[in-house]
Amino acid sequence: MIRHLRYMDWLLVISILPILVFGLLTMKSLSGDDYFFNRQLIWIAVGFVAMGLTTAYDWRGLKSSAVILSLYALGVILLVILAVIGFVTRGAQSWFYFGTAAFEPVELVKLFLVLVFAKYFSRRYVEIAMTRHIAISFLYLVIPMTLVFLQPDFGSAAILFFVWLSMLLFSGLRFKQIIVFIATGVLIAVVGWFFLLQTYQKMRIVAFFNPEGDPRGSGYHAIQAMIAVGAGGVWGKGVGYGTQSRLDFLPESETDFMFAAFAEEWGLVGVAALFLSFTLLFWRILRISIRSPDNFSKLFGLGISFLLVSHIAVHVGMNMGLLPVTGIGLPFMSYGGSFLVMLMAALGILESIAIRSSEIKAYEKEEFIGL
């Protein structure tokens, strides 16, 4: 294990540290007590343990069809059980509760689906343009996505779809098929609006286009978030001086509106530092993906990148009034153990890929020079 430290991508680990610190400082300043701050510290510690375990594990074991199908089945079973005995919180049946701790299965499902698609698309890289392979990969998606949608968790269901579509597009899809997918997406959106979306979800979308139309109702969250982001200015109001969050004008500021709370206190300078850290993180992930030895590991790295991009885009978009409010957290910053531990475990798998790839290259170099 010690020799593995030599080949770790330490910049990958370093890139998430300022993001974690930004989240902790913002969380600590949001209220008079340290409830969320202290619990998030615990989840960060658990996350680093998860990262250590997945780093130590040889990622090539995840290429086994039996392992991947078992993980997929576990994810679906958890979602089915959740639909039967899960607790309803804020209108969604999305969590298991164990005392004061909560577990959200969809976060594990996101990681499991990235593994499933990396396996399926890597084995059929040449044939992926065939309609039957696209259909089969969609079947892997549609079961958990439907269960998540029915919770109802529209935001997470949309992210699952985006990850599948992005990985599919980067697996060799033809332009004609891309057009078909766009047309299908429009059709699904129309059907979803009239037959699938709940009333409160429609109200959120209407409020997105015209939040001022109901400033004290469905448009309240969006308006308060935009006020918070704009109030930060260039330098911010300072840690602990954000009026929108501290005076409870901004609801769920430690989760759904973390970016708005952060932007109010840290301003444009802080936001620039945050996105610089995310840029470094994406660079290291893509670097590992490009240098990895096979299509499975390359697609896994891309899948995790797409997962992060979708979360960041949706969270920041809804905090700035560019997207409807969906309840999607900001990676490594928003409060929540399930999401954080899943991301840290995913980064551990990427570290495992980086380590084993470097070891193979070092061995080949020694063989070449005759050592």
UniProtKB/TrEMBL annotation:
Its main location: membrane. It holds the Pfam family FTSW_RODA_SPOVE. It is found in: Membrane. The keyword Transmembrane applies. One of its GO terms (biological process) is regulation of cell shape. The chain crosses the membrane at residues 7-28, 40-59, 66-89, 95-118, 130-148, 154-171, 178-196, 266-286, 298-320, 332-355. The keyword Membrane applies. GO terms for cellular component: cell division site; plasma membrane. It comes from the Bacteria. Keywords: Cell shape, Membrane, Transmembrane, Transmembrane helix. One of its GO terms (molecular function) is lipid-linked peptidoglycan transporter activity. It is a multi-pass membrane protein. PANTHER family: CELL CYCLE PROTEIN. NCBIfam families: rodA_shape (TIGR02210). This is Rod shape-determining protein RodA.
